[in-house]
Design a protein that fits this description.
The complex is a heterodimer of chains A (274) and B (308). Chain A is mostly helical and 274 residues long. Chain A has one domain. In chain A, strands 1-2 form a two-stranded antiparallel ribbon. The longest helix of chain A is centred in the middle third of the chain and has 31 residues. In chain A, 45% of the residues are buried. Chain B has 308 residues and is an alpha/beta fold. Chain B has 2 domains: 214 residues, Rossmann fold; 63 residues, Alpha-Beta Plaits (2-Layer Sandwich). The longest helix of chain B has 16 residues. Chain B is globular and about 75 Å long. The two termini of chain B are 41 Å apart. The relative contact order of chain B is 0.14. Classes of the chains: A mainly alpha (274), B alpha/beta (308). Chains A and B meet through α1, α2 and α5 of A and α2 and α3 of B. The complex binds adenosine-5'-diphosphate and magnesium ion.
C-alpha cells in the first residue's frame, strides 16, 4: 500500500537537501501549538513581564531623576529613550525561552526529537519548526510590548510600527543561535552559561544609557554583541533611519540566523543519526 | 519467488573499539514475522536503529525496499512503523493528539488521520482514554499507543523493539493478541525480544543473536528440533548436591546442562528418563518434564541463559 507519506517523501527524492529536509517544518509548529494550548499560560506571561517591569520602574522611577534626554530627533522622556532597547530585549527573551531550556528538555529528556526524526521528517524540519516557534514567541512579546509603549504615549512616530518586523528578525536570530548552542550543551549545568552571558549583555548593551560612557575598546566589544545589534536595529527601524547602518544590523542577524540553522541541523543529525 | 523487503550482508556497527553488531547477514520477506532473539547487549536495538535509518552502519550492505538507508533515509522511514525499546510518546499531548501529530509528521492529511484515529484507538483499546494526557497512562497503555501511533502511516514494515519488556503478564497477553492480528493482516513484522515465549508466539523465523553475532537462524520449531531434544527433564537436588549428581546423571541423558539451581536433562522422552533415574535409586527433591523451548536452544548455543 502506498501511503501519502511515501508519495510525499518520494516526490522530494533527489531534491536539494532531501536527506535533511522533508519540507514540513509547519508540523513541528503545529505540535507546539497543540502542547501550548493546554499548558501553563503563566510561564508565557512571566517571560513577557520582565522588560515591562524595567520600563515602568526605570523609565518612570529613574526618569524622574534624569529628566528629558536630547536626541537628534528632539527631546524625549527617559522612558521613551529606553523603550526600544527593552523592546529588543523582550524579543530576545521570548526567543531564548523556547530555544534554550525548552529545546534542552526536548533534546535530552522527553525524547521528542528522537520520535520526530524516526518519521520521514528531517533535522532541518525540526530545526526550522522549533526556531519558528521560538521566534513567534519573541514576536508576540515584541508586539505586546509595542502596544504597551504606544499606549503609554512613548512612541513618537508611525515608524514605530516597524518595531514589530525588526523584533521578529531579532527573535529569529536569537532563536536560531540559541538552539544551535543548546544542541551542544550536555548538562543543566552547562545551560547556566546562557544566564551568565545574557544578564551582563542586557545590563551593558546600552538599553539604559548611551554607550559613550564606556572607553572605545569596551564600546567595540559591546557593539559586536547581538543584543546591542538588536537594540540598534529596533531603534533605527522605529525612528525611520534607513541607511547603511541599519543594513549592517540586518546583515548581522541574517548571518546569525543562517549560522544557527546550519549548526542546529548538523548537530541534530549527529545526535540522532549516529 | 518471495519479495525480500530487507537484505543485510556483513552488517556491522562499531562504537569506538567496541563491536556492537558484528557482520550479520539476514533477509526478511514480505509478510513475514521476523525475530531477533538475544540477551541484553546482543546488538538487537542497534540493528533495529540501522534498519530504521536512524543510525549509520559502520560497514556492510543493507537494502530496505530496494533502497539504502544511508542514501535514502527519509524515503525509507516513510515506509516504516517504529516502536522503539523506550517509549517516546509526546507526554504533553493527549492520546489522540499523539496519533494525529505523528501522522502529520509523515505528511498525511488531517482528514486521512482523523478517519484513522477511531480505528487505531479501538485497536489499542484506548477509546475511553482518547482525551487523556499520555503522562497519566499505564505502561501497557503507553506501549499499545506507541504501536497504534506507528500504524497511522500504514507502514509496510512494523518494527517492534522489545514490545512487552517491563509489562505485567496480562498487559503482555493483550499486546500479543494485537500483534497477532497485525500478522494475520499480512503486515511484515520485525520483532526483537529476550523472551523466548514471545519469539515462539510471534515469529515465523528468527535469528538468535549474541554479542553482535548470529548464532543460528530458522523457524522456532526448527531451531528447537536442530539444537535441542523434544523434552527436558528438570531436576533439583539442592544447591550443594547438584554438582555431585551431574556425573551420575550424565550417561543417562542425551545432553546435560547445569544451572545454579537445577540440572537440565535433555531427552526424547522425559518421563521415561525420570523412571530410569528413580530405578537407579536417585531421588531428586523436585522434578519436572517439559517441552524444549528456545531458552534451551540459546543455552546450547551460548552456554548461557537468555535472561540473567
Ligand atoms: N550509542 C552507543 N554508544 C556506545 N555503545 C553503545 C551505544 N548503543 C549501544 N551500545 C552498546 O552496544 C551493545 C549492543 O547494544 P544494543 O543494541 O542496545 O543491545 P540489545 O538491544 O540487544 O540489548 C551494548 O553493549 C551497548 O552497550
Ligand atoms: Mg535493546
Amino acid at each position: 500500500m502506498t501511503s501519502n507519506a511515501v508519495a510525499l517523501s518520494e516526490r522530494r527524492l533527489g531534491k536539494f537537501g532531501d536527506k535533511y529536509f522533508a519540507g514540513r517544518p509547519q508540523q513541528v509548529l503545529l505540535r507546539n501549538w497543540l502542547s501550548f494550548k493546554s499548558s501553563a499560560w503563566i510561564a508565557v506571561v512571566s517571560g513577557f513581564l520582565e522588560p515591562v517591569l524595567y520600563l515602568l520602574s526605570f523609565g518612570y522611577g529613574i526618569g524622574e531623576l534624569v529628566g528629558n534626554i536630547s536626541t537628534p530627533g528632539g527631546d524625549i522622556s527617559y522612558a521613551a529613550y529606553i523603550a526600544p532597547g527593552l523592546l529588543a530585549t523582550s524579543a530576545m527573551n521570548g526567543a531564548m525561552l523556547d530555544s534554550t531550556w525548552n529545546v534542552f528538555f526536548k533534546l535530552n529528556e522527553s525524547r521528542l526529537y528522537k520520535a520526530m526524526l524516526a518519521t520521514s521528517l528531517g533535522p532541518l524540519d525540526v530545526a526550522l519548526g522549533e526556531i519558528a516557534w521560538a521566534l513567534m514567541r519573541g514576536g508576540l512579546y515584541a508586539t505586546a510590548f509595542t502596544i504597551i509603549i504606544a499606549g503609554l504615549g512613548l512612541v513618537t512616530s508611525w515608524w514605530a510600527i516597524l518595531a514589530i518586523p525588526a523584533a521578529i528578525i531579532v527573535a529569529f536570530g536569537f532563536a536560531s543561535f540559541g538552539m544551535a548552542i543548546t544542541s551542544f550543551m550536555k548538562s543543566h549545568h552547562q545551560m547556566n552559561f546562557f544566564e551568565i552571558f545574557l544578564l551582563p549583555m542586557f545590563l551593558f548593551s546600552g538599553a539604559f544609557y548611551p554607550l559613550t560612557v564606556f572607553p572605545g575598546w569596551a564600546q567595540a566589544i559591546i557593539k559586536a554583541l547581538p543584543l546591542r545589534q538588536a537594540i540598534e536595529l529596533v531603534t533605527r527601524a522605529m525612528n525611520g533611519e534607513f541607511g547603511i547602518n541599519i543594513l549592517v544590523n540586518f546583515t548581522y542577524f541574517l548571518v546569525m540566523i543562517c549560522v544557527g540553522l546550519f549548526f542546529t541541523t548538523k548537530r541534530l543529525n549527529a545526535l540522532f543519526m549516529k | 519467488m518471495t519479495e525480500m523487503l530487507i537484505q543485510a550482508r556483513g552488517l556491522t556497527k562499531t562504537y569506538g573499539d567496541f563491536v556492537a553488531v558484528d557482520g550479520i547477514d539476514f533477509d526478511v520477506a514480505k509478510g513475514e514475522s521476523f525475530g531477533f532473539l538475544g540477551p541484553n547487549g546482543a546488538g538487537k536495538s542497534t540493528t533495529m536503529r540501522i534498519i530504521g535509518a536512524t543510525s549509520v552502519r559502520t560497514s556492510g550492505t543493507l537494502t530496505i525496499l530496494g533502497k539504502d538507508p544511508e542514501v535514502n533515509g527519509p524515503q525509507i522511514r516513510a515506509h516504516l512503523g517504529v516502536v522503539p525499546q523506550q517509549d517516546n510518546l509526546d507526554n504533553e499531548l493527549t492520546v489522540s493528539e499523539n496519533i494525529f501529530i505523528y501522522g502529520r509528521y509523515f505528511g498525511l492529511s488531517s482528514s486521512f488521520i482523523n478517519k484513522k484515529i477511531p480505528e487505531l484507538l479501538e485497536f489499542a483499546q484506548l477509546e475511553e482514554k482518547k482525551d487523556t494526557k499520555v503522562e497519566a497512562l499505564s505502561g501497557g497503555m503507553k506501549r499499545r499507543l506507541t504501536i497504534a501511533r506507528s500504524l497511522v502511516s500504514e507502514p509496510d514494515i512494523l518494527m517492534l523493539d522489545e514490545p512487552t519488556t517491563g509489562l505485567d503478564p496480562q498487559a503482555r497477553h493483550i499486546l500479543w493478541d494485537r500483534l497477532f492480528r497485525l500478522k494475520e493482516q499480512g503486515v511484515t513484522l520485525l520483532i526483537t525480544t529476550h523472551y523466548m515465549d514471545e519469539a515462539e508466539q510471534l515469529c515465523d523465523r528468527l535469528i538468535v543473536m549474541d554479542r553482535g553475532k548470529i548464532m543460528a537462524e530458522d523457524s522456532p520449531a526448527q531451531l528447537i528440533k536442530t539444537y535441542s531434544t523434544k523434552e527436558v527433564l528438570e531436576v533439583r537436588f539442592g544447591s550443594d548436591r547438584n554438582q555431585e549428581m551431574v556425573e551420575v546423571l550424565r550417561p543417562l541423558a542425551d545432553r546435560i546442562e547445569v544451572l545454579p539451581d537445577r540440572i537440565l536433562l535433555y531427552a526424547t522422552d522425559g518421563e521415561q528418563l525420570l523412571e530410569q533415574i528413580t530405578a537407579k535409586g536417585i531421588h531428586p527433591n523436585t522434578s519436572l518434564v517439559r517441552r524444549s523451548s528456545l531458552e534451551d536452544v540459546f543455552l546450547r548455543l551460548t552456554g548461557r541463559s537468555l535472561v540473567e
